[in-house]
Design a protein that fits this description.
By secondary structure, the chain is α/β, with parallel strands linked by helices. The protein has one domain (5-366): Aminopeptidase. The chain is built from 12 helices and 12 strands. It has helices at 5-20, 45-58, 107-123, 127-130, 140-153, 164-169, 205-208, 215-218, 235-245, 277-291, 317-325, 343-363, and strands at residues 25-28, 31-34, 63-70, 76-82, 94-98, 155-159, 177-178, 190-191, 250-258, 262-264, 294-295, 328-334. A hairpin with a 5-residue loop joins strand 3 (63-70) and strand 4 (76-82). The longest helix is centred in the last third of the chain and has 21 residues, at 343-363.
């Protein structure tokens, strides 16, 4: 590993102490819960929107809230930017954090809502007041100094709910109507596209290798993994695409999902190594030191296979971000269950990934990929 361990040692202390010493209750967004007798309630789209608007109004010097477009059902796809000079595009190294490609994976966006509120209020020196119930579980001053370093010298972009329609409906896909698998039916045949199968990288490969990529399953518009009529057919993925194309300073992306507590990286459709395997392992191993998750490596030799040599998942954001744009991209599979309701568990994964997000933001200045784009 060619980077970090001096930073990771201090971050590890925070993580270890946090796991061992979470007690009492905590305030997060509009929810106040106790560990003993109340299950955690996740934000809805509306409550998230109210919270983000309030934070952006109170801290307009470092946080902006804009929309990337509208979903089929008319919801804004919110983008949060956090940076010292938030109204200026300074071309500083940037990271992109995304949640809720799949609407039923609630921790994926909840962790990002927590991150936004925590770092913005910490930068403004309000952490003790807002998060008083977890004071003492970690070195708050050291964490705040990292937050200041990141906000002063990086641009953090966050799309907490890529798929707000799916979140509100309570299922995996978005809610756009389908007119058959190829859009040639006269009436609606089903609803929804799996957004994390709709990005354009080797998207047509399943037509060449239908058995390897389970084409009969992913081509049915009623399938949970239906990938759409064509790449970027959906409002949500087009919004992500257009934003990324307009921000070439993005160096690293984390896409949050649930569940299984693992870290994944391209390729998502094959176990062949990437041109940047050493860089992926360097960053991924340091993330693993912070959150304790298993880094799933790819390739030959003695390393584990995540996917068969010929097969895997086509159309993921990670493959497109890396393969088409040269952005070092990871999937973070949070939690041991899809949507835990134990507040202690929710706080644990939220706090762990404050440091994960700060680490990749700091590391973004060091990222130069070799993939040909």
């Amino acid at each position: 590993m060619r980077y970090l361990h001096s930073l990771s040692n201090s971050l590890l202390v925070i993580t270890i102490v946090l796991i061992a010493s979470v007690f009492g209750s905590f305030h997060m967004g509009v929810h106040a819960v106790t560990f003993l007798d109340e299950p955690y309630e996740y934000h809805s789209y509306d409550s998230m929107t109210r919270l983000l608007k309030n934070i952006s109004m109170d801290h307009a010097d470092i946080m902006s809230l804009t929309t990337l477009g509208m979903t089929y059902e008319g919801r804004d796809i919110w983008l949060v930017k956090i940076s010292k000079n938030v109204t200026v595009h300074e071309q500083e190294p940037a990271v992109l954090l995304m949640g809720a490609h799949h609407g039923n994976e609630l921790p994926s966006y909840e962790s990002l809502i927590f991150f936004i509120e925590y770092v913005v209020k910490s930068y403004a020196n309000h952490t003790v007041d807002t998060f008083h119930d977890i004071k003492g579980a970690f070195d708050e001053d050291a964490l705040r100094q990292r937050i200041i370093s990141v906000i002063d010298a990086r641009e953090i972009y966050i799309i907490p709910m890529v798929n707000p329609d799916g979140v509100e409906y309570g299922w995996r896909k978005n809610r756009a109507p389908n007119y058959g698998s190829f859009g040639n039916a006269d009436s609606i045949t089903s609803y929804g596209v799996d957004l994390n199968r709709n990005y354009d990288f080797n998207w047509y490969l399943p037509f060449l290798l239908p058995l390897s990529y389970m084409l009969p399953f992913i081509i049915r518009d009623s399938s949970w993994n239906y990938r759409g009529e064509h790449p970027f057919s959906e409002n949500e993925t087009k919004a992500v695409r257009d934003f990324v194309l307009d921000h070439p300073n993005i160096k690293i992306s984390l896409s949050y999902h649930t569940y299984s507590e693992v870290i994944l990286y391209p390729w998502m459709h094959t176990s062949l190594p990437t041109p940047d395997e050493e860089l992926y392992i360097s960053v991924g191993e340091n993330i693993s030191l912070l959150n304790g998750y298993d880094l799933r490596t790819h390739g030959w030799g003695n390393r584990d296979y995540l996917f068969p040599r010929f097969g895997g998942t086509i159309g993921t954001s990670e493959n497109w971000l890396y393969g088409s744009q040269g952005i070092l991209s990871f999937t973070m599979e949070l939690c041991k269950t899809r949507a835990p309701t134990d507040p202690a568990v929710v706080l644990d994964y939220c706090m762990k990934h404050v440091d994960v997000n700060l680490y990749v933001a700091l590391r973004s200045a060091d990222i130069e990929t070799r993939v040909v784009v």
